[in-house]
Design brief:
- It is a single chain.
- The chain is of the alpha+beta class.
- The protein has a five-stranded antiparallel sheet with strand order 1-2-9-10-8, sandwiched between helices. A four-stranded antiparallel sheet has the order 4-3-5-11. The protein has a two-stranded antiparallel ribbon with strand order 6-7.
- The protein starts with 16 loop residues before the first strand and ends with a strand.
Length: 221
């Protein structure tokens, strides 16, 4: 994606592959291009600051589509905890809802995560080694209908490489192309501002502003 808001398709030869997993759990992935070979830092747990390895975007997409047991188990626990929190919160059980939210947040920290912005020896903005040419997009607090509508819009967008449903089940995460590729966190933030404006003006969707950092972590599944 350029730093402007023009909607010219960046890859005319892009292939579109849409995989539906249940009703709203899906990965939308459009590429046979170089982005799929870009490397990301992979963290076994979100709390760790040093990555355990580097994986390609293609490997990440495969992992999201067919998650290994090491991801399925903590994801299932986090999803159940979020459902409990939501039920308690809606019923007005404030204290119990607070405890359930704390439990959910703790379980979420045990999920593996990646830095969509690229690779890092340590998860700090200033430690960027190689930028991936991508930025994470995170759209939270969507109703089921709003999530489906956003999915339909974004999976056809030329700048969106892939999408998946967040651990809460109420948001979308994904990767957005950046062109030209930023060289540091400051340039990445400029691209994030352009992406924020583009998605708001085009689809009425609001990005989570906390995702502006190049070293931002994204939970898997």
């Amino acid at each position: 994606m350029s730093h402007g808001t023009n909607t010219e398709t960046p890859m005319n030869t892009t292939l579109s592959i849409i995989t539906e997993i249940e009703d709203t759990y899906f990965v939308s992935h459009k590429s046979e291009g170089q982005e799929m070979n870009a490397y990301l830092s992979y963290f076994d747990y979100a709390k760790t600051s040093v990555p355990s390895k580097e994986i390609t975007v293609a490997e990440l997409v495969k992992m999201i589509r067919n998650p290994p047991l090491a991801i399925i188990m903590p994801f299932s626990k986090a999803k159940a905890a979020h459902a409990e929190y939501k039920q308690l919160n809606e019923s007005g059980a404030t204290d119990a809802a607070f405890d359930a939210k704390q439990k959910y947040d703790a379980l979420k920290q045990k999920l593996p995560a990646v830095t969509f912005g690229g690779t890092f020896p340590q998860r700090l903005n200033k430690e960027l080694k190689d930028h991936s040419g991508l930025m994470v997009i995170d759209i939270d607090h969507l109703t089921k209908n709003a999530l489906i509508k956003a999915r339909e819009s974004l999976r056809a967008d030329p700048y969106i490489l892939f999408l998946y449903v967040s651990p809460s089940g109420e948001g979308l995460k994904g990767a957005m192309r950046i062109d030209p590729i930023p060289c540091d966190d400051a340039e990445h933030k400029k691209a994030f501002t352009a992406a924020t404006n583009y998605l708001k003006e085009t689809y009425g969707l609001t990005l989570d502003s906390q995702c502006k950092d190049v070293a931002r972590l994204s939970f898997l599944c």
